[in-house]
Amino acid sequence: MTDNVFAKIVAGEIPARKIYENEHVIAIMDLSQVTKGHTLVITKKQVRNIFDYDEELASNVFAAIPKIAKAIKNHNPEVKGLNILMNNEAVASQTVFHSHIHLLPRYGENDGFGLKWEDHSSDYTSEELDDIKANLIKALEGVK
């Protein structure tokens, strides 16, 4: 089923700047090039996002990431670091609902990409954090 742009790329129905492929993923240059070398690692299996992964798919997909990341860093001596980003659902900025992971090479503080991290630790009491921890542990028991 090829109902989205990434499924069509995987199926070879539309062109892309492919840099890597194995039996589980295809890696392509992102059209937006948020930073130079911005690459997408797309699952060949059509799943919406991380919530649809099982352990085998996760193992197969994430096994390819270091190789592609090292190639991105090694191809350009100006690359100082790399963000690995996966948006899952619209509230988290996912716009194509076919699993994909962004590899964003970083060149310095003003390279066109940034993340905002706020410290909310003072918003929670120790008891509230313990409750969150207990609820997460309980939820993990039901996850396969």
TrEMBL record:
Lineage, highest ranks first: Bacteria, Bacillati, Bacillota, Bacilli, Lactobacillales
GO molecular function, one term: catalytic activity
Coiled coil: none
Annotated motif Histidine triad motif, positions: 98-102
Name of the featured protein: Histidine triad (HIT) family protein
Catalytic residues, chain numbering: H100 (tele-amp-histidine intermediate)
Organism of this sequence: Marinilactibacillus piezotolerans
Annotated HIT domain residues: 5-113
Record-level GO BP terms: nucleotide metabolic process
Gene3D superfamilies in UniProt: HIT-like
